[in-house]
Amino acid sequence: MSRMIFVNLPVADLEKSMAFYAALGFTNNPNFTDETAACMVLSETIHVMLLTHAKWRTFTDRPIPPADSSEVMLALSSDDRTAVDAMCEAAAANGGTADINPPQDHGFMYGRSLADPDGHVWESFWMDPTAIPQDGATG
């Protein structure tokens, strides 16, 4: 069996967050969705659990970081540069923020960062493994 990842994120507005992730291409799994949480599926192995703050607090006593902080950046591979740009444009058009960090273009690898409505940081990137510099230099 393939290993799966369930990224759990605290969100202030569950419906708004569900709409944001749907605009990025995630689909909702209603079997794991109620008024306190939503399971948004990107692939068979990648799921994002959106949890209301109250639901989040049933899992941990640790504080929810403010939206302008970063604890982790979640990186998702894309099929090409156009898909990277499309994800960032969809984020900006649906309550998120595109290019929270400068875009990275190393020729063989291209990436852009975005934040969801709660400030969770994602990076969409494309890479051509056949074009990676053999000397180990990446830019």
Automatic annotation (TrEMBL):
InterPro entries: Glyas_Bleomycin-R_OHBP_Dase, Glyoxy/Ble-like_N, VOC_core. One of its GO terms (molecular function) is lyase activity. Keywords: Lyase. It comes from the Bacteria. SUPFAM superfamilies: Glyoxalase/Bleomycin resistance protein/Dihydroxybiphenyl dioxygenase. The lineage of its organism: Bacteria, Pseudomonadati, Pseudomonadota, Gammaproteobacteria, Oceanospirillales. It holds the Pfam family Ble-like_N. This is Lactoylglutathione lyase. Residues 3-127 form the VOC domain. It comes from Billgrantia sulfidoxydans.
